[in-house]
Amino acid sequence: MRTLMAAAALSALIAGTGVAHAQSSAVEGRVDRLEREMRAVQRKVFPGGAGQTIEPQIVPETNTNIPGTPSGSAIADVTQRVAALENQVTSMTGQVEQDQYRLRQLEDAFNAYKRSTDARLKALEEGASSVGGSTPVIAPVDLGETRPTRPTRPPVEEVVAPKPTGTRAQQVAAVAKPSSGDPAEDGYTYGYRLWQAKLYPEARRELEGVVTKYPTHRRASFSQNLLGRAYLDAGAPSLAAVAFYENYKKNPNGERAPDSLYYLAQALTKLKKPAGEVCKVYTELDQLYGARLSAEMKAGVAEGRVAQKCK
């Protein structure tokens, strides 16, 4: 009888040990899989590699001998903790994927904006590329007239326009329109009066009309130069630089070509271009038009060269 009871007890112990071993093996397999997934997540979060991985907060104790086999409650506790780790890894992986998706969306939106902006800037800056490279375009804004130090000579036949008052429409209406029978002459004179009244957008439209319709008229050089002045006085030096350079390039023998080179140097100065570029413009002005410059403009060139430390 005792022999039978001992055999039954031994069989039960062996069966219990087998179940515990099977459960322990299953847990170890899940832990190994979790470790592999955690390393993959760490590579996503810390692409730098070594030295940036997260060390586990729970480490096995050393030199600890645990006799016997783990009880059912201990295995259940480990299983629950492994399941919690699996949930955390899944959540972290999903979060990393969402962050990567948002980052791709931001990059795509920025690239689209950059392409659109570059295309618009290139179209507006092609005229100034030979002066000093690509110049950022500043939208014309009526900030009030900021008269340059050395103003160009007004036409001898010009009558100073009275300062307008009232609404914008009333101010424009207060500027008298000339009627000499020469549309190019009248267009330039009217644009000049609008510029004097600080009605810069209206002045630019009138002056652009003269340049477009009468490119061979002597007032085309005057109008293109004054167009640059209108941009410069309105706080748009980049557009002013384009206008001045086009007047000099397309009509170098025009009466206002020297003036345009002079004001081109001032526009580049306002744009904070390198001193070498500004000095190059002053040198070209002296070499090509030195004999045609008035005493006042020569003094202005000398002052500009000193300010830019030209050699």
Q: Key terms for this structure?
A:
311 residues; mainly alpha; Serine Threonine Protein Phosphatase 5, Tetratricopeptide repeat; 67% helix; 0% strand; elongated; disordered N terminus
CATH topology of the domain at 168-308: Serine Threonine Protein Phosphatase 5, Tetratricopeptide repeat
Rg (C-alpha, Å): 41 Å
How many strand segments?
Answer: 0
Assembly type of the shown chains? single chain
CATH architectural grouping of the domain at 168-308:
Alpha Horseshoe
What does the overall shape look like?
A: elongated
Helical amount among residues, as a percent range?
Answer: 55-70%
**Count the helices. How many?**
11
CATH level-4 homologous superfamily of the domain at 168-308:
Tetratricopeptide repeat domain
- As residue ranges, the low-confidence spans are 1-7, 127-161
How far do the termini sit from each other? 121 Å
